[in-house]
Design brief:
The protein is an alpha/beta fold. The chain folds into 2 domains: 170 residues, Rossmann fold (3-Layer(aba) Sandwich); 137 residues, 3-Layer(aba) Sandwich (Rossmann fold). Helix content is 59%, strand content 10%. The protein contains 15 helices and 8 strands. The strands form 2 sheets. It has a 6-stranded mixed beta sheet with strand order 1-3-4-5-2-6. Strands 7-8 form a two-stranded parallel sheet. The radius of gyration is 22 Å and the shape is globular. The two termini are 36 Å apart. 36% of the residues are buried.
Length: 314
């Protein structure tokens, strides 16, 4: 299982913007005495997982209420559920098994795509996985955050009506174009670092407009992010494979940049200063190597409107 709270503390979570209202509702539900397990109901691509990551970031940053300050959010994979069902007698054991140092009372299980997880449990031998989950939520202190689509939620609650009584629904609607642009601006730096390119402002704005015009069936913000990602990947691949010396320097630079982000996120400012100096040295080494080998700086590649249009055209 992935410890989402720890990932947030380590600076591994992308910024979450435009979802403060949903995160606030999650906090209220988790702090409640009754029906304290929320379920995020929204189409895939609307940002359900990002909302949970935003909650984990608040906890990691110390911006959560005191009763939730020490909680750890663990994302449960359907494959893990299938393996667990064959050996464990109750779902509560899964929380205890999340990590030896974390007790079940501190763990919050994130059941991303609840329908898929219940299907995996049934396939592994659970006679009625939904009823099992219902019993655990009704008769233990275990808390879960689940997610599913509106159609899946209707089907689950029709076949297992008590499931609706265990969860409190948080509706997740697609962001509008303004909100989606804010998401793209927040994710821009991580996409640029991953692909080694620079995105123009026009690229971000066109990705939002194009998503709404040419891909109306897919929800925002995911489809706009996919356009940027695909355009960045295409630009990266068009440059070909760099020489081993350049590839090694780029790898080292990415490693240092990741360590720097983690140090800043954890308020370890001595480490941050050290990695900042190391990053500057590595960038200088990369620049010198590029000049010596007469290779164009890969970071000079730019993704603009034309590159987005090429992705849409296929």
């Amino acid at each position: 299982m992935r410890n989402v709270t720890r990932a947030a503390a380590d600076g591994q979570i992308d910024p979450v913007v435009g979802r403060d209202a949903e995160i606030d509702v999650l906090l209220e539900i988790l702090a409640s005495r009754r029906r304290s397990s929320p379920i995020l109901v929204g189409e895939r691509g609307t940002g359900r997982t990002a909302i949970v990551e935003g909650l984990a970031q608040r906890i990691a940053d110390g911006n959560a209420p005191s009763e939730l300050a020490e909680r750890q959010i663990f994302s449960v994979d359907p494959a893990q559920i299938g393996a667990w069902v064959k050996t464990k007698p109750s779902l509560a054991d899964l929380a205890s098994a999340a990590e030896e140092s974390d007790s079940a009372s501190r763990a919050i299980l994130f059941l991303d795509d609840l329908a898929e997880i219940l299907a995996a449990a049934a396939k592994a031998g659970a006679v009625n996985a939904a009823a099992m989950l219902t019993r655990v939520l009704e008769h233990s202190s275990l808390q879960c955050i689940a997610s599913c689509t509106p159609a899946e939620f209707r089907e689950l609650t029709q076949t297992s009506p008590r499931l609706a009584e265990c969860f409190r629904v948080v509706h997740v609607r697609p962001l509008d174009e303004k909100g989606t642009l804010a998401v793209l601006q927040a994710r821009r730096a991580s996409l640029e670092k991953f692909h080694g390119v620079a995105y123009t402002d026009e690229a971000l704005e066109f990705a939002v407009k194009a998503s709404a015009s040419y891909l109306p069936a897919d929800p925002l913000p995911e489809k706009a992010l996919e356009l940027l990602d695909a355009a960045g990947a295409r630009a990266k691949l068009s440059r070909g494979t760099p020489p081993p010396e350049i590839a090694e320097l780029q790898k080292r630079l990415r490693f240092i940049a990741h360590r720097l982000e983690a140090a800043v996120a954890n308020h370890e400012f001595e480490k941050a200063r050290f990695y900042s100096d190391e990053e500057r040295k590595e960038r200088e080494s990369l620049r010198a190597a590029l000049e010596r080998l007469k290779i164009e700086d890969p970071s000079a590649a730019t993704v603009g409107r034309r590159e987005i249009e090429a992705v849409i055209a296929g």
